[in-house]
Fold this sequence. Notes:
There is one protein chain. The protein is mainly β. Among the domains are: about 1-40, no CATH class; about 150-265, Beta Complex (Ferric Hydroxamate Uptake Protein, Chain A, domain 1). It is built from 13 helices and 49 strands. It has a 22-stranded antiparallel β-barrel.
Amino acid sequence: MKKFSLNKGVLVLWSSLILSFYLNPSPIFASSALRHKISIPQQTQINGTIRDTNGPLPGVTVSIKGKKTSAISDFDGKYIITVSPTDTLVFSFMGYRTSYVPITGRKIINVKLQQDATALQEVRVNTGYYSVKESERTGSISKITAKDIDKQPVNNPLAAMQGRMAGVNITQNTGTPGGGFEIQIRGINSIRSEGNAPLYIVDGVPYSTQSLGSVMTSGNILAGNISPLNSINPADIESIEVLKDADATAIYGSRGSNGVVLITTKKGKEGKTKFDFNTYSSFGKLTRTTKLLNTEQYIAMRKEAFSNDGITEYPAYAYDINGTWDQNRYTNWQKELLGGTANTTNMQGTVSGGNTNTQFLLSGNYRKETTVFPGQGYYNKFAVHNSLTHKSNDNRFKISLSADYSTDKNALPANDLTYQATILAPNAPALHDAQGNLNWENGTWNNPLSTLEGMYSAKTNSLIANATLSYKLVEELEIKTNFGYTDYLVQENRTFPSTMYNPSYGLGSEVSMLVLNNATRQSWIIEPQINWKKNWGSSTINMLGGTTFQKQTAQQLSQYGSGFSSNSLIHNLAAAGYLTITDDQLTIYKYQAFFGRINYNWKEKYIINLTGRRDGSSRFGPGNRFANFAAIGAAWLFSKEAFMDTNTFLSFGKLRASYGTSGNDQIGDYQFLDTYEGTGNNYNGVIGIKPSRLFNPSFGWESNKKLEAALELGFLKDRVFITAAYFSNRSSNQLVGVPLPATTGFSSLQSNLNATVQNTGVELELRSVNYKKNDFNWTSSLNLSFLKNKLLEFPDLEGSTYANTLVLGKSLSIQKTYHYTGINPETGLYQFEDYNKDGKITGPEDRQWIEDTSPKFFGGLTNQLSYKNWAMDFLFQFVKQRARNYLYTASWVGDFSNQPIDVLNHWPQNGTTAEIQQYTTGANGAALDAYFLYSNSSASISDASYIRLKSISLSYTIPQQWTKGMTGRIYVQGQNLLTVTNYKGADPENQSAFYSPPLRQITLGINLSL
Length: 1010
């Protein structure tokens, strides 16, 4: 029980009375003031709304200049404060310019704050285990926030990152809903194509992006496999940070070699309970299509091909030209099969709020997408996100809970129709007969819509849960523990009913087939940590230590059945006459690590950052399960030196550099062990097994040594801000297959080689405030990346299985091709360089021409403009590259297949300057051989550079006086609206003849808050 002092009590009482005389003048004092004509300021309440270019701005501090009175704006940006008529209000908020507004007799003062580039240097960025001021970071980190994500109606978080981050190259594989993306952060580090994915962390929880889908089910529609990142709702993301250099990634050790993507979800904020509702609808069409031959041109091509081959009587199977099909009929098959409209409906509802101690957020999302293909294919997703944060009154104990659950269903055609749409003869028959049934035209063609008879269906469920508890033992010392759990489930099936096949084949349900894939993956992680921070005069030291325990279990069962008695039973595997299990596996991955960080800051000018991690993984051999990774980063803020005058042209300057190591463990489980698999063959009633992998106890980590140096400069009070960074990464100890003699029974042994891959590059970032005056603001940002990839070492490369795909001193992305030298004027056929001078073009000996398909540079240009209640943002994405064109997958010209209109430039009409050799139906063996060489030659690789208007957003904030207390915003958005390219094919981004390109989308939406 506390003791009460009478003397102290009397002192407090007297102090209160004296203070009350000053703050609440008595009538005697007031009358005296009147006699002496002293003016006493009258107190009054001022209210208003604070906003920025995107809408209401909560959390803004409103104070009175020269006084201690202050208030905070609520979720709607509203505030109330008591002032005197002569006061001046001060509006301040992190990242915005402070605004001073005199009262001048007004009762309502509405303010629009402008972002301040200088203040943005004080914004903290997330590095995973700790956060740091933007101005004081020693590592290379790129960041986008919810404001950038909300301007794009996308389903996958990677789609929101395209073109917005230096050094981060993202490619969309297909425009089909639910399709995946490829991401490369500062190039390709691993020779293995599957070993270049970054580490994803969602609210502190590692999230595996290794697909559990099966190529047998999703391979023909989703360009490979299901992307687990589709389970994360972009509207629930607060920020995405990408860690690139050693200083930022070494603390993640063996998993940070390819960069780290940190996804932070939204949390509740202090203030009254707020309801947000956002809904939009989109319609999408193909961005580009290939210009193909019309019927007249096609028939002329076919006739010339038969004439060249000396065939005067058209074969019975040449239905397009022998009179079986109408030669005056024309169908634009790309329009017919790919010309549909993909509709998207998205609804998001959020409730959030809280007091000083506890904040909460709960949101729900529903999304439905259709496709451009005929039929009723669709993609559905439902997602729930919730967050709860709490802190004690003394601010020592904190707890944060978050959970994200999503479930989606993909019910799509079993095949992408893109390739069919480009090869069908333009005079092919109608899709349906007079009764509306599939038209088989007396068995003379395979109706492309027959693939719709078979269906692909996938259901996925995903849960990501996180809990973080922290407690301050003393002011300088804090302990924290992070708990995480993920659960991912995939159920796929694909049907192949006999009705898919031409009735002339006479096939029944005995050939019908069902393919099933069921897979689950669960993971848990616990990370205890301790953080100590101490200030000594001009010095600040921050130390972090922690440990990680993680376990992941995955299980997969894939099987197919055939021989059904009826197609009505095709979804029942028990009804199959023949049953085969193609994959049945259980894998367990265990991981343990210790990590730490020491950061020293002197006078906020000189900063050293040391990070390290010791990792242990069950994926490696007994003697190589543990490895150490470390990095050092340093920064010098020379603009804070006494000899610098930041009030002149240069306002900010920083030099930073880093060096260190990180690793790569993306090699799958049990790769170092002797393993066996079932043969599927029955011998005397027993299913046999066979060895599938040899034991290698020396199996160890891939390691990546990273070096970076960067210069950051701000000019004109940071209205212009430039960052230039140079990096050099060397990835060694490559995990590749070492060739073995065939007598061993194995083609290779998975092992580490002294092969070294180097990535060097320059990243440039420019942010500028172009105009800021009155109600009009215009800011721009540009990122530009120049990357070079090179294979430095590979022992005995010529004797390995990689000899046909890799060359020392060249990029991992090279294509070794035949060197096309033109058309032979005598034969009218393609000709090529004979490297070994043996008089013929054969095999690897003559496939020596090297084409590099890695991007030479890429980047994006963003502009943000606002005028009063209007705001517009647009992003141009650009890539300089070469890639495979349509010649790589197109059939020979003259075949029973349509062609791009470019094939009209052919021999002999245009002689040796022609692009295409003489037409052939395939009967001319020499021409056919020349075609196969041509499709694998330098001619099939050409410029695939492009500039794309990736996104544009125009919004209008509805005045509050119109909405009676609500805030609202209406907007229109566009994706992939314009593409400028010389690419010989449909789309320069995914460069695929088999999968639809990214869609051009127009979106209309509204956002309401109350």
